[in-house]
Recover the amino acids of this structure.
């Protein structure tokens, strides 16, 4: 390998980070080998930059610069701070699975009170098992991406969740990522397998405990939605305002099933959700709604790749960005329709609301269609609040900020409405309102 | 007593003067019609009273209940009792009519230092008004004016008027785009709101509307000024002879 030939600012720092982390990374043998290969794959590019097409608008080399050292295992004080943050983020009635700085915190999680049909193991424990060679695949994905490779190299823990066939969960599972460390990085990877005919609501929250600043989060989730299963997945990203969060999610969707993903990002200085969906069974439905609420110099990226590998599936993507100050939002949507995937119905829409002249929205929709009997389309808009609507509201007595807030709420409302769970939807609406109230 | 006093008002839009020294006084409890040809400045006048951005007042003043109206933001004017019924009410997708009505009413009450309405009181009030205006309840659940017909949009304006109880109502071309039945329902709604404390400015191109909302005073506007004022018979006179005579007068 000609690693040394690649000019790479993050190279030396990253390799020393990897070397220093060795003692903390679970797994030996095959697992360790996969980690080394993954790190080598990362090193070939280093932090992704604008010359890598998929990262054109989110140049981590410019935005992030360094790969920070791995966060230490959380101590008692860190766990106490995490506990307070978790209490605030917890969804009423949800089964909590808490990771602190990339390590499962058993005391903060509801592992002893799991709903029937649900089993949870810690990735760390699985990788450390003697017979771990058979589970080394937990670190492998068919998607290649530098940040996903870095995740495989440095992952410390995660949850491995199995929901048995036919299980109907009446309350959500909530995966909570808490940062307590500052100027350190975390790498987690979780696996969720939703059995045939099962119904699950999975909430994923990213939050910072008091005092956590300038951290880097790299969390991955690998999710299987079984045949005739339904998964509602709601992500609420409220990282510290100077943090970096790169999340990768990989979904494989079986036949006659339904995945409804909602993501709202209002935190982090730099964030990206890259989600890869494989429609692997016929007659399934994918719904993705995303909202970015960004201000100051925040940079938020949502990148979606939908692979229609089989016939007769529908996918709907709807993305809304509200951008104030000098914020920058990116939407990239790629829909691939394989030759066999006839009767595919795939559509995406992205809209940006610019509240300031200096805000920026980029969108890159791509359709790659190899089948001939399909219905696919995309649309994109960007603009300011409509003055005629604002005047109407003000003429009815709403002060300027309140009139703006009502219109912003309406703008994001269409995406938020897709959340099926009433309680969760109300939480998300309240969270969006908090963001707007902070504008004044 | 004068509710609204407009003195020598001069207004520009992008370097072009639209109102050239307009003077008009409206007493409490009176209905004034303002008629005039297209381009005479009728809608500009209504927009300036309501505070729409984009108009530059270069001279004159507007006093509302003795206060300087031009110094107030549009929402302050609404809270003080100015209501403009739009010629073309906008559609606001994603904002349910009920939410809008309640937010607006409570914003006005808050600005006046009054207590906000409780939910049951508010709902009761809206139901009563919408029933009298023949507005179905499910319309109120939809986005503001989204998918409403022209008549429904105008009735929604009248509903707001009835709910907010303003002291000055400006009806900008309320008859535009309405058939006779829709016009009658909207006009009945307006007439029900006539009271000794409430004044109205009815802006219209045609005399037809004034058969339904009978004015106390009629003004003719031409080229940015009021060129003639008279009783309700002036409207009939205009219907017969047209506006041409005033084009020269201005």
């Amino acid at each position: 390998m000609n690693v040394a030939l690649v000019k790479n600012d993050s190279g030396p720092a990253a390799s020393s980070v990897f070397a220093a982390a060795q003692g903390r990374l679970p797994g030996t043998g095959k697992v360790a080998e996969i980690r080394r290969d993954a790190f080598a794959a990362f090193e070939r590019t280093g932090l992704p930059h604008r010359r890598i097409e998929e990262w054109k608008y989110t140049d981590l080399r410019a935005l992030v610069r360094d790969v920070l050292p791995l966060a230490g295992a959380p101590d008692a004080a860190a766990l106490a701070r995490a506990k307070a943050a978790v209490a605030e983020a917890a969804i009423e009635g949800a089964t909590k699975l808490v990771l602190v700085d990339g390590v499962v915190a058993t005391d903060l999680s509801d592992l002893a009170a799991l709903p029937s049909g649900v089993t949870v193991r810690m990735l760390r424990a699985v990788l450390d098992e003697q017979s771990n060679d058979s589970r080394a695949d937990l670190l492998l994905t068919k998607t290649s991406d530098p940040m996903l490779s870095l995740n495989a190299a440095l992952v410390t823990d995660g949850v491995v969740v199995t929901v048995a066939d036919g299980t109907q969960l009446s309350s959500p599972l909530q995966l909570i990522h808490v940062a307590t460390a500052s100027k350190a990085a975390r790498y987690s990877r979780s696996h969720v397998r939703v059995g045939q005919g099962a119904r699950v609501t999975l909430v994923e929250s990213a939050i910072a405990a008091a005092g956590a600043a300038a951290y880097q989060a790299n969390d991955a989730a690998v999710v299987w939605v079984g045949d005739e299963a339904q998964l509602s997945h709601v992500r609420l990203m409220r990282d510290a305002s100077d943090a970096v969060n790169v999340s990768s999610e990989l979904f494989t969707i079986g036949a006659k099933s339904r995945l409804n993903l909602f993501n709202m990002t209002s935190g982090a200085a730099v964030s990206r959700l890259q989600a890869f969906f494989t429609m692997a069974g016929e007659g399934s439905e994918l719904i993705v709604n995303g909202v970015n609420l960004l201000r100051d110099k925040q940079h938020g990226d949502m990148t979606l790749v939908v692979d229609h590998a089989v016939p007769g599936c529908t996918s709907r993507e709807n993305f809304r960005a509200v951008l104030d100050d000098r914020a920058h939002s990116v939407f990239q949507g790629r829909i691939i329709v394989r030759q066999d995937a006839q009767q595919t119905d795939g559509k995406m829409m992205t809209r940006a609301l610019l509240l300031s002249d200096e805000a920026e929205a980029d969108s890159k929709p791509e359709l790659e269609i190899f089948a001939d009997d399909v219905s696919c389309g995309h649309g994109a808009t960007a603009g300011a609040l409509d003055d005629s609507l604002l005047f109407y509201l003000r003429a009815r007595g709403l002060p300027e900020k309140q009139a703006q807030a009502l219109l912003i709420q309406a703008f994001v409302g269409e995406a938020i409405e897709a959340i099926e769970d009433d309680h969760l939807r109300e939480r998300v609406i309240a969270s969006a309102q908090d963001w707007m109230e902070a504008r004044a | 007593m004068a509710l609204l006093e407009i003195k020598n008002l001069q207004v520009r839009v992008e370097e072009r003067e639209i109102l050239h020294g307009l003077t008009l006084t409206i007493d409490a409890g009176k209905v004034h019609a303002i008629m005039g040809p297209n381009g005479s400045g009728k809608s500009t006048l209504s927009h300036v009273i309501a505070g729409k951005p984009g108009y530059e007042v270069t001279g004159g003043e507007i006093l509302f209940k003795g206060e300087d109206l031009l110094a107030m933001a549009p929402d302050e004017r609404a809270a003080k009792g100015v209501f403009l019924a739009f010629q073309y009410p906008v559609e606001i997708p994603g904002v349910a009519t009920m939410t809008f009505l309640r937010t607006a009413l409570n914003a006005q009450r808050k600005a006046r230092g009054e207590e906000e309405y409780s939910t049951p009181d508010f709902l009761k009030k809206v139901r009563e008004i919408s029933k009298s205006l023949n507005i179905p309840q499910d319309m109120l659940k939809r986005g503001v004016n989204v998918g409403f017909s022209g008549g429904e949009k105008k009735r929604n304006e009248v509903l707001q008027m009835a709910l907010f109880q303003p002291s000055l109502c400006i009806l900008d071309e309320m008859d535009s785009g309405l058939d006779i039945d829709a016009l009658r329902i909207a006009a009945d709604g307006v007439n029900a709101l006539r009271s000794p404390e409430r004044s109205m400015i009815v802006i219209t191109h045609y005399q037809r509307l004034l058969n339904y909302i009978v004015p106390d005073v009629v003004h003719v506007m031409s080229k940015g000024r009021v060129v003639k004022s008279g009783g309700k018979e002036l409207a009939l006179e205009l219907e017969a002879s047209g506006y041409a005579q005033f084009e020269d007068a201005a």
